[in-house]
Amino acid sequence: MHRAMAANYIQLTLATPENVLAAQPNLLQKRRELFGRLAGLRLFGVPVPTFRGFSLIRGWMRLPLLHRARTFFGTTKRIIIRGLWRRRPVFVR
Questions:
Q1: Fewer Cβ within 10 Å of end Cβ, the chain: N or C?
Q2: Other CB atoms closer than 10 Å to residue 31's CB: what's the count?
Q3: Is the residue at 41 inside a domain?
Q4: Whole-model pTM?
Q5: Considering the domain boundaries, does residue 66 fall inside one?
Q6: How many domains does the chain have?
Q7: Closest CA to 60 of 48, 49, 69
Q8: What is the tens place of the pLDDT at every residue in 56-76?
């Protein structure tokens, strides 16, 4: 990337948090929904990633109750329908 900058192929500038949110308007909403989805996955024993430095529950609690319920139960419904709680081999020989 540094060589591309030196050759004037690209120009990089710092982005402010406001610019990032303006470029990705649904980012904050999706992040708020993440806690409910991860909780649904965890309930069925599906491995979930950990997010350090993010207060997922605080954002989730800002959502209306109906939206929180829809997020959680929608995820659990997809887990049941797709059978995601079952372990599957990664490599099949």
A1: C
A2: 14
A3: yes
A4: 0.69
A5: yes
A6: 1
A7: 69
A8: 999 899 999 999 999 999 999
